[in-house]
Write a structure and sequence with these properties.
- With 511 residues, the chain is of the alpha+beta class.
- It is 35% helix and 25% strand.
- A hairpin with a 2-residue loop joins strand 16 and strand 17.
């Protein structure tokens, strides 16, 4: 059989020509195995009894015991009639030792042809080498799958970042910290569910991804078409409206954790496909949602890091409840000096905004409330420390909150908050609007802006949802939490793509 080509140190980089030659050699090796009646791809199962980390951590109890492990060969060092090789399983790596005299001349010769990346199962006993490394002394070795591709020697740095996302399966093999991120993501998702179900009594439900009206948020949807019924559909941009219909139906506490789609720009915090959690609590209000948000973030941080201190890119945030609160209008007044608390007229608000520096063409169709929201985004959001948080931003104008209950003390604003940490919006929550007449009027205004091209992300009219409100929606608190951003913060991940196993990527030529 062909000579082994993987005794060199792991840091050696192969040229494109060498990689091509290696792949050719691996296919030849596979054919030789098949010719010998040893096709690895006929293997269906392997009885694994132990894993790498468990063996290392429980060496005293397991020393001398027989174990069966399975995984991928990641390193190999042949020393004549014996060899060391590392096997990587779901828990990490463990060193394995193999001797020609233990398995026989023919088997050892075949073992020497195995490549980095091959998947093997082995049976042996646990021991420590002279250098005190916990290892498995192999007595029996089985090739379970032949790797026909060459694993990279180095899988880091900017030159590989795009390829890492495209070939996440290789990224996971090569980078332990990447595997750890996704184990921690699973912990966070599990904790979110536990808080909702065990602490608050919520019921998990599923609602349609395909919708005729993409509602519940101000965003541009993806469009598709149902061929059998010949009508257009949209991918959901939010989970909100179906869940509130369920509250009308008497399911008092419901939540959904699922994918949401928005046909918009991409950056380190935004992806066209992301994971959202939305929860609705009948007879709950804004303060109940604040409590829920605090508990979710606090318990997720504790589950992953064992501490309420989240450290992100060198900055620290203590998420221990209770969190601070700031008001949107008050903040705009402080920063710009414009007395919006005394301005009720839209024209007066426009004149003040234009005088301060807002674009006249943009502002000419905006209402007072829309201007306040836009000026907060333009002049306040990026102020150092303002939204470092954790902090609840409250006092959103009615004009930009079409689904939120008005504040009885000031009908110009709504009972709404956005939760921020590190300047990122992590959640959006309301005391939900349950007045069907008010809701219809707000939808009508949003539809007008949509029709006139004033705002192509305005909320469309949803007459069935208004009908549901006419049946009767109890006072309800609702919240939506961006799971990807929460995972980014808690795992100290630079971009949203780092916490999505398969982020949306533009296909390469030929794909």
């Amino acid at each position: 059989m062909s000579n082994d080509n993987h005794n060199a140190p792991e840091t050696v980089e192969l040229t494109a020509e060498e990689v091509s030659e290696q792949r050719k050699i691996r296919r030849e090796k596979l054919q030789e195995l098949r010719d010998m009646g040893r096709d690895p791809f006929v293997q269906e199962t392997y009885n694994v009894t132990a894993h790498s980390k468990d063996i290392k951590e429980n060496f005293e109890a397991m020393e001398g015991e027989e174990v069966a492990i399975a995984g991928r060969i990641m390193r190999k060092r042949i020393m004549g009639k014996a060899a060391f090789f590392d096997v990587q399983d779901k828990q990490g790596r463990i060193q394995c030792y193999i001797k020609r005299d233990d398995i026989g001349v023919d088997e050892y010769k075949i073992f020497k042809t195995y490549d980095i990346g091959d998947i093997v199962g082995l049976r042996g006993f646990v021991f420590k080498t002279r250098t005190d490394e916990v290892s498995v002394h192999t007595q029996e070795l089985t090739l379970l799958a032949k790797s026909l591709q060459v694993l990279p020697d180095k899988w880091s740095g900017l030159q590989d970042i795009d390829l890492r996302y495209r070939q996440r399966y290789v990224d996971l093999i090569m980078n332990e910290d990447v595997r750890e991120t996704f184990y921690n993501r699973a912990k966070i998702v599990k904790t979110v569910r536990e808080v909702l179900e065990e602490d608050y009594g919520f019921l998990e439900v599923e609602t349609p991804v395909l919708q005729t009206i993409a509602g519940g948020a101000n965003a541009r949807p993806f469009n598709t078409h149902h061929n059998a019924l010949d009508f257009d559909l949209k991918l959901r941009i939010s989970l909100e409206l179906p869940l509130k219909r369920l509250i009308v139906g008497g399911l008092d506490r419901v939540y959904e954790l699922g994918k949401v789609f928005r046909n918009e720009g991409m950056d380190k915090n935004h992806s066209p496909e992301f994971t959202s959690m939305e929860a609705y609590m009948a007879y709950g209000n804004l303060e109940d949602m604040m409590d829920l948000m605090e508990q979710v973030v606090y318990k997720c941080a504790m589950a992953v890091n064992g501490s309420p201190i989240i450290t992100y890119e060198g900055k620290s945030f203590d998420v221990t409840p209770p969190w601070n609160k700031i008001d949107m209008t008050e903040t705009v007044i402080k920063v710009t000096g414009i007395p919006f608390d005394k301005i009720d007229d839209d024209e007066e608000a426009r004149a003040a905004a234009i005088k301060y520096g807002m674009n006249e063409e943009d502002v000419k169709n905006w209402t007072r409330g829309k201007i306040i929201a836009e000026m907060f985004e333009e002049y306040c959001e990026d102020l150092p420390g303002l939204l470092d948080g954790p902090v609840f931003l409250t006092g959103h104008p009615v004009d930009v909150s079409p689904l939120s209950k008005r504040d009885p003390k000031d009908p110009r604003i709504t009972r709404r908050f956005e939760a921020y940490i590190n300047g990122w919006e992590l959640s959006n929550a309301f005391s939900e609007l349950n007045d069907p007449i008010d809701q219809y009027e707000r939808f009508a205004e949003q539809q007008r802006e949509l029709d006139l091209g004033i705002d192509d992300e305005a909320h469309p009219m949803d007459t069935d949802y208004v009908n549901a409100l006419e049946i009767g929606l109890p006072p309800t608190g609702g919240i939506g939490i961006g799971i990807d951003r929460l995972v980014m913060l808690i795992t100290d991940s630079t971009t949203i793509r780092d916490v999505q196993l398969f982020p949306v990527m533009k296909p390469l030529a030929g794909e």
